[in-house]
Design a protein that fits this description.
The protein is of the alpha/beta class and 335 residues long. The chain folds into two domains: 173 residues, Peroxisomal Thiolase, Chain A, domain 1, CATH 3.40.47; 153 residues, Peroxisomal Thiolase, Chain A, domain 1 (3-Layer(aba) Sandwich), CATH 3.40.47. The protein has ten helices and 15 strands. Strands 1-2-10-15-14-11-12 form a seven-stranded mixed sheet, with helices on both faces. Strands 4-3-9-7-5-6 form a six-stranded mixed sheet, with helices on both faces. A hairpin with a 3-residue loop joins strand 1 and strand 2. The protein is globular, with a radius of gyration of 18 Å. The mean pLDDT is 94.
Length: 335
């Protein structure tokens, strides 16, 4: 059974296995440096649907089906689906899975939802309540812009700290047994709010939460950065990543060359006009489900700390002058 270690970390006895994963992305992501690792690149931003929101559900369902196929499992083997997105009431997820007929939990951790789902799924399996769990998330540039910022037709200019919401979906199948990388421990994050009010600077809002979770994980486990091949954050972008490195350094932690951010990996920041990089639930999920899993399969990675980050903002509360609370959940994945 799982046991608490320190203040926030949970060590898993069962160590759930990632037996299948898939990443489906849009056209812009397919033009980036990780293109060859994705399972499918959908050129049509509508994905054959009538709306951007329906397209996002299609991306997620496709990712789920592909991950299930690669895992060798069938839908009848799955005990639970843990899924979420950025839309109000997590409708991309609920509409994606409404006909799947598997017990479902809708999650909202903003862009941290992939690591949140992995944390909870790992605990379900370790407790004996489940044998196989699906973790799936999505985001879509057009649906996110419409909800959080301005309609695309408005043609607003992007700020120097803004990021580009990734269009796509990532899905992972976790199992109590099988072959693949294992989740050995998890460090659920705390809500951290350092008073950032600029919704176009979410990297600055999320960096303190990432630092808090990483520091808690290292303290709880007694490990150092050197014991990891990679400290992988979700979508801090270039600005937030720089902040994270500086925050950790102030607390005596030198990330050296270990830190990488999915938001700066999925796009070519010099060529693709995404300003500080990628964001959105699908940012960390697609990078983890494709490129990172491939590196594990090729024995290029032995242990990583995956820390997806989320800005828990609402357009309504921002307009009311509120600050942006953020969160980051840590997942230790080992070969």
């Amino acid at each position: 059974m799982a046991k608490k270690l320190g203040t926030q970390t949970v060590v898993l006895d069962t160590q759930p296995v990632i037996i299948g994963s898939a990443a489906i992305v849009g056209k812009k992501e397919g033009e980036g440096p990780l293109a060859r690792y994705f399972d499918d690149i959908i050129e049509d931003e509508y994905a054959g649907e009538k709306t951007f929101e329906a397209a996002e559900s299609r991306f997620m369902l496709n990712a789920y089906n592909k991950a299930l196929e690669k895992s060798g499992k069938s839908a009848s083997d799955i005990d639970f689906i843990l899924s979420g997105d950025l839309l109000n009431q997590c409708t991309a997820a609920s509409y994606a899975f409404r006909d799947v007929s598997i017990p479902y939990f809708g999650l909202f951790g903003a862009c941290s939802t992939m690591s949140e789902s992995l944390v909870l799924a790992s605990m379900l399996i370790d407790s004996g309540a489940a044998s196989n769990v699906v973790c799936a998330v999505s985001s879509h540039f057009c649906s996110a812009e419409r909800q959080f910022r301005f309609p695309l037709e408005y043609g607003s200019q992007r700020t120097p700290t803004s990021q580009w919401t990734v269009t796509g979906a990532g899905a992972v199948i976790l199992s109590k047994e099988g072959q693949g990388p294992r989740i050995t421990c998890v460090t659920p994050g705390k809500i951290v709010d350092e008073g950032i009010k600029d919704s176009n600077n979410m990297g600055a809002a999320m960096a303190p939460a990432a630092a808090d979770t990483i520091m808690a994980h290292l303290k709880d486990t007694g490990r150092t950065v050197d014991e990891y091949d990679m400290i992988l954050t979700g979508d801090l972008g270039s600005f937030g990543s720089q902040m994270l490195v500086e925050l950790l350094k102030r607390n005596g932690i030198d990330t050296k060359d270990k830190h990488h951010d999915c938001g700066t990996m999925i796009f070519d920041l010099n060529r693709q006009d995404v300003v500080c990089g990628g964001s959105g639930c699908a940012c960390s999920a697609t990078v983890l489900s494709s490129y990172i899993m491939e590196r594990f399969r090729n024995n290029q990675l032995k242990r990583i700390l995956f820390v997806a980050t989320g800005a828990l903002l609402s357009p309504t509360r921002i307009k009311q002058g509120e600050t942006i609370p953020s969160i980051a959940h840590g997942v230790c994945i080992e070969a």
